[in-house]
DNA sequence: AATTGTATCAACCGCTAGTAT
DNA sequence: AATACTAGCGGTTGATACAAT
């Protein structure tokens, strides 16, 4: 029963990749795309296991990777996203176009931890070092019993919104026009506007057509919608059906607001019998104000 | 110049959720 | 329904580069 193993482990190379191996992998993926990693090594003539090929491609060879140092902006974004998500590196990376989870993880461990410690902040709890330890071990998660201060949540929301905005530019790099848009992102966003309400456009309600609200849901909402595309009105109403609190203007899970899939950041809003009971909510107000419930 | 210590990061390992058989 | 496997994730390790002595 089942299938054959993904690779002959006895006949696979390990360790650093050679230029030739890189070229083979690049050439193969250019010709055939990212298909089945299991069969790729053999098809590409590589003595590597599929897992290794996948990692090499994702972390190093992918053409859309952003090389070079992290910017101060990215630093702050990572800190804020980490405050909200904990060590969910892939989720954080998803909000930082051109960066990989591995890269961010390494960067966190080598730079940001130290940076936070020098600020007197615990890198795991994001609380002042002298402060009482959080009741839960590890990082504060959206479902954790040690939620961040309201201001931190709001900051994190803003950061994620900005990140989502950045991701939008990146996600659309398939075509040249979009690539251009991505490359000019910095020109058009010299200072990230983090003061955004990102609540209403994620699952746009047919009824919520207030122009004030529409104008207050700027780039980030578009980004959220992009990362969780719901293009048609039918889809929107479907979303309303799936998220009745949102459609009715009631509080909505912060994670969902930020554009995470329900299974991504807050599984509990999907699995908890009464998810509203143990999450913090983000109530959008007019004029970009927020209330943390 | 040689040695030792430290920082960085690519790659590996082990685990889990989802899926194919 | 049970089993076997894949893809993806986060933690850890090891090789290399660089800095200090």
Tell me the layout of helices and strands.
Blueprint: H1 19-32, H2 40-44, H3 50-61, H4 72-85, H5 89-94, H6 101-118, H7 150-171, H8 176-183, H9 185-188, H10 211-216, H11 219-227, H12 233-242, H13 244-247, E1 252-253, H14 254-257, H15 268-271, E2 281-284, E3 290-292
Antiparallel strand pairs: 1-2, 2-3
Helix pairs in contact: 4-7, 7-8, 7-11
The structure holds a DNA duplex (21 and 21 nucleotides).
Quickly list its features.
3-stranded antiparallel sheet, DNA-binding, single chain, Arc Repressor Mutant, subunit A, 15 helices, 293 residues, mainly alpha
What does this entry look like structurally?
GO terms for molecular function: transcription cis-regulatory region binding. Helices cover 48% and strands 3% of the residues. It has helices spanning 19-32, 40-44, 50-61, 72-85, 89-94, 101-118, 150-171, 176-183, 185-188, 211-216, 219-227, 233-242, 244-247, 254-257, 268-271, and strands at residues 252-253, 281-284, 290-292. It contains 15 helices and three strands. The protein has a three-stranded antiparallel beta sheet with strand order 1-2-3. It is mainly alpha-helical. Among the domains are: 9-61, Homeodomain-like (Arc Repressor Mutant, subunit A); 195-292, no CATH class. It binds a DNA duplex (21 and 21 nucleotides) through residues 1-6, 14-17, 36-38, 50-52, 54-56, 58-60, 87-90, 101-103, 105-107, 109-111.
